[in-house]
Amino acid sequence: MTEIFGKPLPVILGQTLIGLINGSFYALLSLGLAVIFGLLNIINFTHGAQYMMGAFAAYFLLNKLGVNYWWALLVAPLAVGVTGMVIERLMLSRLYKLDHLYGLLLTFGLALIIQGVFRQEFGSTGLPYSIPESLSGGQNLGFMFLPNYRAWVIAASLFTCLATWFVIERTKLGAYLRAATENPAMVQAFGVNVPRMITLTYGFGVALAALAGVMAAPIYQVNPLMGADTIIVVFAVVVIGGMGSIMGAVVTGFGLGIIEGLTKVFYPEASNTVIFVIMAIVLMIRPQGLFGSR
Prior knowledge:
mainly alpha; ABC transporter involved in vitamin B12 uptake, BtuC
């Protein structure tokens, strides 16, 4: 059996694939954070709670209304995105002229409130959410058995990330969004409703978090603490990729997922801290992040 540094090749390939699956969620969540920060300059600490809300929305849709997984992929992000737009209009819009710290404190407080409400109502025990029947089973890759659902998560996350990057970086709508962050008065002079654009952009970033929550529900179960366990790692991913960099969030999310998976093979004790070690190194060498600009 082929070995690399004393470890069997099938084990290394298997952990690489598992890391890619985790990286799919890192990329999708950090993409939502990058969209909100890059276009609105808001450090959205509520992102983890909104990710959790997406998973709970899918759970309620299935168990209370009989809405299946495929419809939940559309309905849950829209519903959670609307709650995000309400938060932006009623609360965040009042803080744009103040220091960024005020927005961070507000969203951090909102995250604690949302998480506390769900924890009080449902406890800390995970609620099961079944994999859709069309994605049950898996494929034997020789070095591991890959469930079809996890392969779908990788493909769907990659498609969503690339589509978002294309819209923001390569379309007229994306150009308006970027221009509105630099010179809102000029963009408004062209007849664009800048406040509405800002609200919709925030709602879209929140919807991305909710979409990740729906896709995570069959894998990690639905838990009020699922966002709190993930958001710190996602913030580290965003910092490494570059705050506000769309492509940085995508590449770094998938890449760090793979690195985390390989660390579990060669040095398992460091697997929970390797991302933060990389973040510290990047901040010392390139404070703006790997893909960010000064």
